[in-house]
Amino acid sequence: KGKGKGKGKGGDDGPDAKRPKLDEPENPEDEVNFEKDWKDKQVCLINLKSTALNGVMGVVKAYLGSEDVLVDGKIKKIRRFLVNLEGGRGEKSIKFENLFKVMTGSSVKLRGLDAAELNDCVAECGRLDAETMRYDVTLSDGRHIKVKPANVEFVARYEVAEVAGTKAQVERLRAASSLRDQLTAIEEFQYPVPQLLPASALAEYARKFPKSVVIGRSN
Questions:
Q1: pLDDT tens digit string along 11-69?
Q2: CA 205 to centroid of chain Cα atoms
Q3: What CA–CA distances, in Å, run from 105 to 21, 66, 118, 126, 210?
Q4: Pairwise CA distance, residues 40 & 83, whole Å
């Protein structure tokens, strides 16, 4: 009997909860859609030999291509991306395996927690601890809890399509690692401050009018 070819299910755009990496492009290198899959994505550096950079966040600026490298007697394809690191660390070439796409600064819904009363709560997703692979999440009542990437579901992220200001100001806004950092920068630049609602109010509205709420997808 002949063997047929099956088709696997493709993943979504969100962080892969089962492995600490970005979802690897399914297409060959010459078909990688950088503009769609990688440009301006927020990432956290993980598993680097230079441990001082582990946990540092940045924004992907360019896909640098790939090269075949001999590793343990086998040819391995190494993909690299140019990442603009936070804190004035500049731009660095980082391997695909050392990147983890994050939801830092986004509103998220909690799921799969042992503390069942917190499931379905909307919260702000903070920084990722690269050592423990846990997010610092702020609940609507101000409490902080540590959760795995698998325990957060993307809801929304505040971003501006265009920002009036210098290149340095734009880069600072993009590199801001939390909603609080973004608002601090906006106030310093004297930009109009967005009107924000408590997460509890948004969650209550979603329960009352579920069809009026559009749930987005992770960057």
A1: 444 444 444 444 444 444 444 577 678 888 999 999 999 889 999 999 999 999 888 88
A2: 26
A3: 19, 30, 19, 6, 23
A4: 9
Beta bridge partners of 142: none
63 and 57 Cβ atoms separated by less than 8 Å: no
Q: Which two tokens stand for residue 135?
A: 């997010």
Q: Are 125 and 106 in contact (CB under 8 A)?
A: yes
- Is pTM beyond 0.85 here? no
> What CA dihedral angle connects 196, 118, 142 and 122, to 10 degrees?
-10
Partners of residue 57 on adjacent β-strands: 44
- Here the tokens at position 64 are 């640098």
Question: Cα torsion for 84, 85, 91, 95, to the nearest 10°?
Answer: -90
